[in-house]
UniProtKB/TrEMBL annotation:
It is found in: Cell membrane. SUPFAM superfamilies: L domain-like (SSF52058). PANTHER family: PTHR48051, VOLUME-REGULATED ANION CHANNEL SUBUNIT LRRC8E. The keyword Metal-binding does not apply. Residues 1-328 form the LRRC8 pannexin-like TM region domain. The keyword Repeat applies. Keywords: Cell membrane, Disulfide bond, Ion channel, Ion transport, Leucine-rich repeat, Membrane, Repeat, Transmembrane, Transmembrane helix, Transport. This is Leucine rich repeat containing 8 VRAC subunit E. Residues 168-200 are annotated as: Disordered. The gene is LRRC8E. It comes from Ursus maritimus (Polar bear). SMART domains: LRR_TYP (SM00369). GO terms for molecular function: volume-sensitive anion channel activity. It catalyses: chloride(in) = chloride(out); iodide(out) = iodide(in); taurine(out) = taurine(in). Belongs to the LRRC8 family.
Length: 739
């Protein structure tokens, strides 16, 4: 006997694969099991019982042309027994062997092939059906995708994040109408003429509720959050991989078409040959020399049972064929290579869930036939909004308020600063630190400040370094008068948030990036310090000249070639420091004389070869840095800068210094290194306040002994070659080495 378990390998699948088996595949599977049992039952009978029993025909040899079993059909058995006459055959004492021989010979020659092989045909056809149904679960090109999909699907379905995301959305949907009614009531109560106040109240109050109402994050622990994060990455990679082709869809169609063709072939030939299964079989074989008979009447012992099994088998095949035809209809009556999550988007409120295509779409259509809840829960991991919420939750787990407080430290301005760098987002726990005065965010992408920002009541300084940020209007109102210092560093002007230019209380604005000269005209009346570093500026933006309170301007690392606009700086009456260093400025215009209130002027690292004599009229200058240029001479009018304390002339091509330069009696620092000076005037002794003098890298042969008159100059402040220093008189060196 053949156990059905022997055929298990043909249909064995992983239990999880059942989610990809719609009802027609399940029905077909049960039908194949029934057909297989019919075949196995028939095969078992065929093997364990006699196949055919034959008796010699008692007709004379001259009547052999007639059917040997003809007369047995219309009469009863008793009548036939009475009409039989005794016939003698060959006596050889081998009757049993003779009958066995005749039975076998007649079975092979007289019995129709359909009657002989019916159970085996049933088994073979059923196995083919089984292979066709489960082939795409076994084929390497499709089974790997299916296994991967089932694995991810199960994890997404069971993930605690799925439950939390859907419950949050459900809660928002339930709260939506209530919030709307409350807002409408507030606006109505404001009365005519107070609509603006009502809107402002709605904007301010409503975000605060958002901060306090969400459920506690303890519903999802850190481990579960990390697992959900990994699932998002797996879903992204799987989607890219599966949406590239349609091998699963094509394979399913092919195996379905093959089953339909097989169904028609089996149905046709079974209906034609089923009548060949008969109870009585006439057999004529030339065995008279051995048995004494050439005509036999045989009984197919299982004919009656086989005919009933055949009709049952054909019935099952018909039902099986109808399921295959319905499968074809389902495959072609609508596009299965496209799948829309529209209903899921409407139900969950996650409007960013994308539609999918190709094999990804086909598998989701099959999933819907099993249980549409799977695709709904799976869609959570296709939503970028859901992913951002999860990242935010993981951030909050990782950066607790206690951990953030450990990073607090005083910055250069004495403010209590929190610096965060290269995080995937901004933790909500930051806004629980009400003591923070300065917030520095670097390399943090896509920041959207939540309403919780309003809890940082002490915030005065904000730095956004390669960290684009969005700010709701209600928070713009909050920061408008509070924020004093803002630093923004980005690549392009469009990355600078527009809300920056609406901060009325801003005193310092530092912008760094490649910006065009047409900067936004901002009403920053209180701005005192402005930095536009590496902004790609070729001219000084005119908008700067309207900043009446501006005190410091830094235009470092731009492409400035001309500074003719410097005349307009006279409108910036409070301007004290002007940094035009690290540009390509070739000359300084004469109207620099208008900047009489300027105290610090940085022109280093440019392409200056001369200086205008009018520079000496900037009587307020205390610091002048013209190092790293191509100056060959200095105008004598520099001696008019009586308030000058720091003069940097290093790395130029100066061959001599004007004697008038030493009229600047308040000079404390004089940097003359790496020029072409061949001598230093003895007038240097008049600079009694001098404390630092750099002379390295020149062509000096000796130092004037008048250096001893510079009472503030010590050896540590004198930067010169050792040979020149040793050439000074001993008493001068003693003065320089005095403590």
């Amino acid at each position: 006997m053949i156990p059905v378990a022997e055929f298990k390998q043909f249909t064995e699948q992983q239990p999880a694969f059942k989610v990809l088996k719609p009802w027609w595949d399940v029905l077909a599977e049960y039908l194949t099991v029934a057909m297989l049992m019919i075949g196995v039952f028939g095969c078992t009978l065929q093997v364990t019982q006699d196949k055919i029993i034959c008796l010699p025909s008692h007709e004379l040899r001259e009547n052999l042309s007639e059917a040997p079993c003809q007369q047995l059909l219309p009469r009863g058995v008793s009548e036939q027994m009475g009409g039989l006459r005794e016939v003698s055959g060959l006596k050889n004492n081998l009757d049993l062997q003779q009958y066995s021989f005749i039975n076998q010979l007649c079975y092979e020659t007289a019995l129709h092939w359909y009657a002989k092989y019916f159970p085996y045909l049933v088994v073979i056809h059923t196995l083919i059906f089984m292979v066709c149904t489960s082939f795409w679960f076994k084929f390497p090109g499709t089974s790997s995708k299916i296994e991967h999909f089932i694995s991810i699907l199960g994890k997404c379905f069971d993930s605690p994040w799925t439950t939390r995301a859907l419950s949050e959305v459900s809660g928002e949907n339930h709260k939506g109408p209530t919030t709307g009614r409350a807002t409408a009531t507030a606006e109505a109560s404001a009365g005519p003429g107070k609509a603006g106040e009502g809107e402002k109240e709605k904007v301010v109050v409503e975000p605060e509720k958002v901060v306090t109402e969400p459920p506690a994050v303890t519903l999802l622990d850190k481990k579960e959050g990390e697992q959900a994060k990994a699932l998002f990455e797996k879903v992204k990679k799987f989607r890219v991989h599966v949406e590239e082709g349609d091998i699963l869809y094509t394979m399913y169609i092919r195996q379905t078409v093959l089953k339909v063709c097989k169904f028609f072939a089996i149905l046709v030939y079974n209906l034609v040959y089923v009548e060949k299964i008969s109870f009585l079989v006439a057999c004529r074989v030339e065995t008279s020399e051995v048995t004494g008979y050439a005509s036999f009447c045989c009984n197919h012992t299982k004919a009656h049972l086989f005919s009933k099994l055949a009709f049952c088998y054909i019935s099952f095949v018909c039902v099986y064929g109808l399921t295959c035809l319905y499968t074809l209809y389902w495959l072609f009556h609508r596009p299965l290579k496209e799948y829309s999550f529209r209903s899921v988007r409407e139900e969950t409120g996650m409007g960013d869930i994308p539609d999918v295509k190709n094999d990804f779409a086909f598998m989701l259509h099959l999933i819907d036939q099993y249980d549409s809840l799977y695709s709904k829960r799976f869609a959570v991991f296709l939503s970028e909004v859901s992913e951002s919420r999860l990242k935010q939750l993981n951030l909050n787990h990782e950066w607790t308020p206690e951990k953030l407080r450990q990073k607090l430290q005083r910055n250069a301005r004495g403010r209590l600063e929190l610096a965060l760098c290269m995080l995937p987002g901004l933790p909500d726990t930051v806004f629980e630190l009400g003591e923070v005065e300065a917030l520095r965010l670097e390399a943090i992408c896509d920041i959207t400040f939540p309403p919780g920002l309003s809890q940082l009541v002490n915030l005065q300084e904000l730095s956004l370094l390669h960290s684009p940020a969005r700010l709701p209007f209600s928070l713009q109102v909050f920061l408008r008068d509070r924020l004093k210092v803002l630093r923004v560093k980005c690549e392009e002007l469009r990355e600078v948030p527009l809300w920056v230019f609406g901060l009325r209380g801003l005193e310092e604005l530092h912008l760094e990036g490649l910006f065009p000269p047409e900067l936004a005209r901002a009403k920053l009346a209180a701005l005192r310090e402005l930095e536009l570093l590496a902004c790609g500026l070729e001219r000084i933006p005119h908008a700067i000249f309207s900043l009446g309170a501006l005190q410091e301007l830094d235009l470092k690392d731009n492409h400035l070639r001309s500074i003719e606009e410097i005349l307009s700086f006279q409108h910036c009456r409070k301007l004290l420091t002007l940094r035009l260093w690290h540009n390509q400025i070739a000359y300084v215009p004469e109207h620099v004389r208008k900047l009489r209130g300027l105290e610090q002027l940085y022109l280093s690292h440019n392409k200056l070869e001369t200086l205008p004599s009018q520079l000496g009229m900037c009587s307020g200058l205390r610091l002048l840095d013209i190092s790293h240029n191509g100056l060959r001479s200095l105008p004598p009018e520099l001696g008019l800068l009586q308030n000058l304390q720091h003069l940097a002339l290093s790395y130029n091509a100066l061959e001599a210094l004007p004697e008038e330069l030493f009229f600047c009696r308040k000079l404390r620092t004089l940097l003359l290194g790496y020029n072409h000076l061949s001598q230093l005037s003895p007038q240097v002794g008049a600079l009694r306040a001098l404390s630092r003098l750099e002379l390295k890298g020149n062509r000096l042969e000796a130092l004037p002994e008048e250096l001893g008159n510079c009472v503030g100059l010590k050896k540590v402040g004198l930067l010169v070659e050792d040979t020149l220093y040793e050439g000074l008189p001993a008493e001068v060196r003693e003065k320089l080495e005095e403590e």
